[in-house]
Amino acid sequence: SEQHWLDCSVLSPLCSKVMSAPNLLRVETTENIFVECQDCTGGDIKVQINVMTHPRRDEILDSTSVTLTSANNYQMFGQLAGTKFKKDPNEKQYVYLQAQFDDRLLEKVVLVSFQSGYIFIQTDKTLYTPNSRGDSQRDPQTKSEASIAIEIVVMCLIFSQCQRAAENIKSMYPGLWKVVARFQSNPQQSYSADFEVKEYVLPSFEVKLKPQDSYFYVDSNDLTVEIKATYLFGKEVDGTAYVVFGVMQKGQKKSFPSSLQRVPVQRGDGKAILKSEHITQVFPNIQELVGDSIFVSVSVLTESGKRPGHPLRL
Question: Where are the beta strands (DSSP E) in 142-233?
Fold first, then answer.
């Protein structure tokens, strides 16, 4: 992440004193403060670095000291942790950052940030079954990753039975779920990722057609065809069947348009009915069809909108 620095310096007759620091001090995050004495010679120089309350300067929130020597070219980093900062992310907090040299005090007003870092949460898939196992990956982007503990909380948005998981997510109920991660040092701010748990239903199923009669007589009023739709694992299908009847003549299929019907399929069962008027609207003289075959085309859609690859025909 991009970080901007503040520079503070003062020029004395013989040398220039410099303090350089981030423009934001993060709560409970180690920050480097650079101090330097340019063109300095001679003995060692001790520099006291303090963080003071703003605006009263009545309390030292953090401090450290460094010694500038000819061996380190009179420049060095001091480290501040900011453990005593007031933890209120809803309030803008400023502090005084000071570097006290032997003869000069450098001071800047710096804003305190409660953004400890960023957490990226990624599940290995977006859809799980109740008994599947999911792993969440967490990637804290901070300057001191080892010092940050992450709490992973699994919260269910629909069901009241929710559970915690540090590494793996197990025994999940169907519904919408959310993985929430927080820094322990900043529990007010959270990061989350959504995923879904669904019962797995094999989409493939078969449709069987069984006519109640093997023949349609010229004086018959109707012909009933039973529809049986089941998933390959045995569960009955609930949905809708779209049915059309027709006749085979000299190898050609001719449909009866008025026979097109929408049939409910409940618990795997449905019934389609061909009526004699469906036939006579296309062939007024039904005697012309004696010896020809009647066909029925059925396409079944489940309640979720799935259907077999091709309509089945009898």
Answer: 150-156, 168-169, 175-183, 186-197, 205-211, 222-231
26: CB partners within 8 A, 6+ apart = 82, 112, 113, 114, 115, 116
CA dihedral of 226, 227, 230, 232, whole degrees rounded to 10: 100
Looking at the structure, do residues 211 and 232 belong to the same domain, yes or no? yes
Shared domain check, 148 and 109: no
Q: How many domains does the chain have?
A: 3
50 and 97 belong to one structural domain: yes
- pLDDT tens-place string over residues 176-213: 877 777 766 666 667 777 878 877 665 588 899 999 98
pLDDT tens for 31-70 read 899 999 998 888 999 999 999 999 899 999 899 999 999 9
Q: What is the CATH number of the domain that holds 193?
A: 2.60.40.1930
Tens of pLDDT, residues 237-265:
999 999 999 999 888 899 999 999 999 99
The last residue of one of the domains, among 197, 223, 250, is 197
Mean pLDDT, rounded, of the chain: 77
Relative to beta strand 94-100, strand 127-128 is unpaired
133 and 78 together in one domain: no
- Boundary residue ending a domain (178, 197, 216): 197
Measured CA distances, 41 to 21, 37, 70, 73, 103 (Å): 24, 9, 7, 9, 15
Residue 162 belongs to domain spanning: 118-197
User: Tell me, what's the pLDDT at 186?
Assistant: 62
Cα 275 to the center of its chain, rounded Å = 54
Co-location of 211 and 293 in the same domain:
yes
Residues 261, 265, 271, 275: what is their CA dihedral angle, to the nearest 10 degrees?
-10
As a whole number of angstroms, the distance between CA 134 and CA 161 comes to 18
pTM confidence score: 0.42
Q: What letters, b where the CB count within 10 A reaches 16 and e where it falls short, cover 143-154? A: beeeebebebbb
Q: Strand, helix or coil at 279?
A: helix
